[in-house]
From TrEMBL:
This is Probable GTP-binding protein EngB. NCBIfam families: GTPase_YsxC. Necessary for normal cell division and for the maintenance of normal septation. Keywords: Cell cycle, Cell division, GTP-binding, Magnesium, Metal-binding, Nucleotide-binding, Septation. One of its GO terms (molecular function) is GTP binding. The lineage of its organism: Bacteria, Pseudomonadati, Pseudomonadota, Alphaproteobacteria, Hyphomicrobiales.
Amino acid sequence: MFARPWGFWRGTPNMAHLPPITGVEIAFAGRSNVGKSSLINALVGQNSLARTSNTPGRTQELNFFHVPPVDGEPTDLVIVDMPGYGFAAAPEAKVREWQKLIRDYLRGRQSLARVYVLVDARHGIKPVDTEVFDELGQSGISYQVVLTKADQITDAALTKLIATTLDQLKKRAAAFPEIIATSSRKGQGMPELRSAIARVVAERP
């Protein structure tokens, strides 16, 4: 599934420009500069599928990626890179537009099977992450926490963080009760993440 030739499909600035539904969609969300684009690149084994930047707020649309159809057969999985939430180097009005786009997409996209919420392992869950958990729960959207940059803390700290994060999520019905720790630089956690996504696709009606 992930070794295929993935390509950029469409950047969507508003709901009117969403692409047609062709398969199961999974979305990656997280604070600005948490490493969403780097993780997507590592996930599919392509260095420049999703644009990366050290500037918070670089992703300003819903970016859709898929494997281009072959012989008219639609893709079975679509990856969505969402604008980062929290601080971004952009005008406040623009950030509000992103936030509305995110909310509308999360609540109105029937093909969305799961949201992977990325959390920087160096900092853990922040209040803005909790707000996103609340919104996903209220919308009845399944989500799973993925720790990024896990190679930048000690093994002991990572083990403690995973336990703490699971404890914070245990009363949230929409949260999948398993944490995946990843490092885009070292490939850590990528097989586990790919397997988790494959299960979501296989279980989707």
